[in-house]
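Let us work through a complete example step by step.
Step 1: write down the sequence.
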Amino acid sequence: MKNKINVDCQEIKRSLMEHFSSVESIAQLLPILFWIISLSRTRAFYEIYVLIGLLGIIGWFRREEGLSAVFNRSRRTEIIIACVFSVIVLAANYDLFLFISNPYSQNMVLGSIYSILHYFIYLPSVFFGGFFAVFYIILSAEQLLVPFYWQRYRYHLSNKAVFWGAFSVLFVLYATILIVGYYPGALSYDSIEQLEQIISGVYSNHHPIYHTYLIKLFFKLGYSLFNDMNIGVFFYSLFSVALMSFCFAYSLVTLYKLHINGKIVIAILVSYLILPYHIFFSFTMWKDIPFSACVTIFTVSMFRYFNQLWSNRYLCISIILCSALGMGILRTNGLLILIILTVVFAVYFGKKRRKMTVALACVTVLSFILMRPVVNSLGIPQPDTIESLSIPAQQIARTVKRNNDIKPEDKELIGRIANIDELKEQYLPYLSDPVKEVVRRSGNQQYLKDHKWEYAMLYIRLGLSHPDSYFMAWVDQTVGYWNAGYNYIRWKTGVYSNQYGIRRKAYSRTLNLSVKYYAETFANTKMARLFLSIGLQTWLIAFIAFIAHKRKDKLTVFLTVPCFAIVLSLMIASPVFSEFRYVYSLFCCLPFLAVIVFRKTSKRMEE
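Step 2: predict the structure and record it as tokens.
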């Protein structure tokens, strides 16, 4: 026994000596450690950076090649991904690494030395730390995950039993919490605004009108039966609970049809049952909830379509097209997402799936018709001009706030649509609403609309003369969607104050407070925050796409496109820097994508 222990110790010692014996090895490990330490002052969730750094170190220990792996031409994809990741982290933490104050700026010699040390030694060291961490994570993934696939199991339960069993468990839990602790549902300011439109009959497409009509359908049904607005709201909340329960059960039964280990299906079911955002969002009156259900159902149905996991082919196709239409009309950025989805599908599968390509194109056109000509013909006002200009407005406002060298003619042009002093005062880096309200209060948006090319040229001129302000404004307005997580509003469980008598009624205050305490504890636990980070979800889906690409699984790569399209649309038009509900779709789709990427694929089915 002692001899065996001695042999094992000697083997470990020899392995460590091999890893630490060369300058090349240390030159890769030290930057990773330096990267972890340098990020300790980040505004983001530091534990996510630490986790990535530790996984990178484990990958470094597991490596089979030295620095030559970085120069291997066959690993261009891995190198590009690692570079992009490292640049993302530097950009997200620009206040730590890129735009810093020089403490020796008054002394030419010391100031120059400081700048040289920072930008030519410190900054490259941090960059290569992030690069090596992700590069070795990717190499480990190629060794361990790319060849891995789920073992198939034989089951005795029918697919119907699994679906209805999962649906019942989800529905009963969500509905119980709704009825007993959070009746009649969760309503934010936006929800009350939509109800006000329904009650007054004066509509606006500021919130997608088709979601308002959906609320109206259930609200009017409940109100007409019981003459109680709270019951009207409750009817919609119950519909929302049923929709999300169906969405999750549909995903679970599809995984069950793949004959993967039942414990995995149960684990995903448990995650749907216990994660606070799934519980609260199931009965929250937000457009993002049915939109997320449509994205998830589309993803699952497209997978079923390609792998012939249907009981009725035409029903499956109908579900695909209906969910795609829902994506296009339930969010203002839905049409852009649908266009991206259709174009990518045409590139990936167009030749062999022409009918589906044409069908998706038709749904895209129909979505446009419903959102524009139809809404206009009904006399329903579209969102105002400034609503879709969140990021340009933020960039101009930041430029005006930070710089005193704006040309008089540019100031005059800005002043025609907004009070410049008020613009400086109201600007918030993470939220565009205050700046948009300044423009709205000016009451001159028509001038902006009539002179859009002049303002487009103004936008370009200011950007060319003050790129640093534009860059920082864009990062601060979007960083939550592509970097490690941030603390911001995730869910709202109350009922916004209103004049209609709609009020929270907790039949069991104990249940209400218990669920609330659980959610708050979960959100404040550092390890649990891994499940709350939007940026981490984006990175994980990118990682799934990479694994699928390496496994030559075109279908799974395509199924990540809706999630990427959502993030992309927010990167060019987000009004809030880290709004959880905007990307709730990613949290719904991730468990399904993480499982199907490791299945055995059939080229015949997926071509």
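Step 3: interpret the result. The longest helix spans residues 108-144.
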